[in-house]
Amino acid sequence: MSNQPDPKKFGYIRAQSEFGHDASDSWDTLRPKSCGPGRKQLPPLPDNETVLSSTHRTMERLTNNPCGDLGYGPFFLEYSLMAEYQMLQKQKLPGIYVMPSAKSPLRWNGVMFIRQGIYEGAVLRFSLDIPNNFPDGECPKVLFTPPIYHPVIHPLTGQLDITRAFHKWKRNFHHLWQVLMYARRVFMKIETNTPLNPEAAVLYEQDNESFKIKVAQSIEKAQELLYNDPDPEDDHAIRFSKWDPAIHEDAKNRMLSQNDSSSREGSPNIQSLGLSWMKPGSTEIFTKNGTDSA
Questions:
Q1: How far is CA 44 from CA 8, 13, 26, 32, 55, in A?
Q2: Distance of CA 87 to the CA centre of its chain
Q3: Is the CATH number 3.10.110.10 carried by domain 73-224?
Q4: In this predicted model, what pLDDT tens digit does every residue of 127-175 receive, in sequence order?
Q5: 40-68 as b/e, with b when 16 or more CB fall inside 10 Å?
Q6: Model's pTM, two decimal places?
Q7: Residues contacting 15, CB < 8 A, separation 6+
Q8: Domain locations along the chain
């Protein structure tokens, strides 16, 4: 008996694994054919549709089983988190600063600056806790430390009710930057339906002045704890230090000088030309350098 493998059987396995279809009876079209002395014809390349279909099936198999048989789960999770953080950086959400924890990539440390509305002036620490089977599974959690007074934030745990915006987490449709954008929006547009803090919801609806007093007290408490070290064991925790001219003044001046130089090097605009569309305090149009001349 010959020890050579059956070429037809080999061709079937090869075609099925690479092209994703049964090609047991198409070996003659796949194997090299002689095209004259010293020349052979290579098998045809699969079309784009076949390649994309095969790739899609492979990714579905890996992502539907984060702890898959081939051990790709941890690598896929790491890739997903890196991609999410890169997307977050590109969004440049105003007033939000986030850093993945040094203790676990599944926790991101954050600080949120509120610049308008009832919560104007608040500096709020928070953490974004990501499920270990991300991007599948439950919705990530946002927890404020200390808890801030708000109808949709739990008064004891500080957890924000994310599910009202993300009823069911959908992979490749929902992203972490959207969660943070919603967390910022709840301080601009206050919702009171199905609250986690019923007292705050009632005060906001029926006694807005008392609600503002409670909010101010909550913000003041957060400010008092702002300079405390949130986690001494986490090298990536966001820490604040009080203003020290010997340390911070030089950095401030460098940043201001960079802004001035960039504005000078940039294209001229109305402000840099000293032009305005209307003279302050009058209805006279298009004044130049504060004079009456056009």
A1: 17, 16, 12, 10, 19
A2: 5
A3: yes
A4: 999 998 888 888 999 999 999 999 999 999 999 999 999 988 998 899 9
A5: eeebeebeeeeeeebeeeeeeebbeebee
A6: 0.63
A7: 21, 22, 23, 24, 26, 27, 30
A8: 7-63, 73-224, 245-288
